[in-house]
Amino acid sequence: MTVRTTSWAALALAALVAGCASSTETAQRDTLTENVGKYDPAPKGVNKPRVGIPAFSVKQASGGSGGADAELDNLAADQMSTLLDNSDRATVVERVQLQKLLDEQNMEGIVRPGEMAKTGQVRGVDFLLLGKVTNLRVKTEKKERGFGLAQAGGSFFNFGAADVKKNDTVITTECGVDIRLVNPSTGEVLLSNFSEYKKTDSASAMGVDILGASANADADIQMSDDDKGKILRLALDDALRKSLPKFDKFLKSEKNVATGADAAPAKPTAAVPTAAPLGSAVAAPSPSKPANSPTVTVAKKFCPNCGAELPAGAKFCAKDGTKIE
After folding, report:
1. Cβ distance 4 to 154 under 8 Å?
2. Does the pLDDT of residue 155 top 50, yes or no?
3. For 162-179, how does the pLDDT look when each residue is reduced to its tens digit (9 = 90+)?
4. Quick check: is 140 in a domain?
């Protein structure tokens, strides 16, 4: 009877310790992610360019990008799209719409994950944001905490002498993030930033689950794709935050203008005739254009989506990229 009482007391104490640890880890996790996607205000009075974000290139330390991990390429680009939109420094072209624009303009293959394959004018997009995540690694150091119920006076419900313990897995995540803003028409890199991300905390505090890990320190661990996405989001947020000073400087520069055929065509300035001095001869009308020739009026065309006026012969709206039938 004494043994069972001791076991119940030990179980209650273990639950209390676990509950306190869980509360602490939840608070740590909230602190870790509370500022993700929250940035200083963008400069006022600047043009917000239309930016498309193709698939990133994500390479893990234990192997290259591709196969099942190719999903991380698109996941990283999706997350950067959300973060850049939150920064309020660009009009981010939705990634499905970006792919549609590339398909309609027969520009499939203009970019590979993380890099420009060739230059070309992408109507409806001012710039492309390309990104690489390199040497992505999550390694671990396991520390046991708690105690064994068998050591406290017997087994729980006589299921043997196995101890009940909680593994407090401390993980270190690290990677490099390289982002570049590129003019697709010329291939010119308008801004670039490389940053290294490293964070050490408990797996519970970072909100990830460990699928498999060696008991040795500095061993790589396995996580679900969702948890890899959480790690990527933290790293990409850190990289964008560090690049914002360069981005703000670019927004204020003369290079922050619409590119190629997306730029509004210059309107010719009509010559204003000046009054001829008294007594001077007045030039006769040019014989190539009789003074009484009829004036031809061309009907104006407007974008069916946003209502912007379209230049003659336009196949795409310069403002929102809508295809003109």
Report:
1. yes
2. no
3. 333 334 678 889 999 999
4. yes
Q: Which of 124, 132, 100 is CA-nearest to residue 51?
A: 124
Provide the terminal-to-terminal Cα distance of the chain, rounded to the nearest Å: 86
- The model's pTM is 0.64
Q: What is the pLDDT of residues 72-110, one digit of tens each?
A: 999 999 999 999 999 999 999 999 999 999 999 988 889
Question: Which residue is listed with tokens 């996580």?
Answer: 223
Residues whose CB is less than 8 angstroms from the CB of residue 93 and which lie 6 or more positions away in sequence, other chains included: 50, 51, 52, 53, 101, 124, 125, 321
Number of domains composing the chain: 1
Asked if the structure places residue 230 within a domain, the reply is yes
* Paired strand residues for 153: none
- Domain with residue 175: its CATH number is 3.40.50.10610
In a domain, 156, yes or no: yes
- Residue 159: give the domain boundaries: 2-256
Helix axis angle, 70-87 to 225-251, nearest 10°: 40
Q: Kindly provide the b/e burial profile for residues 157-167, where b requires at least 16 CB atoms within 10 angstroms of the residue's own CB.
A: eeeeeeebeee
Q: Is residue 220 part of a domain?
A: yes
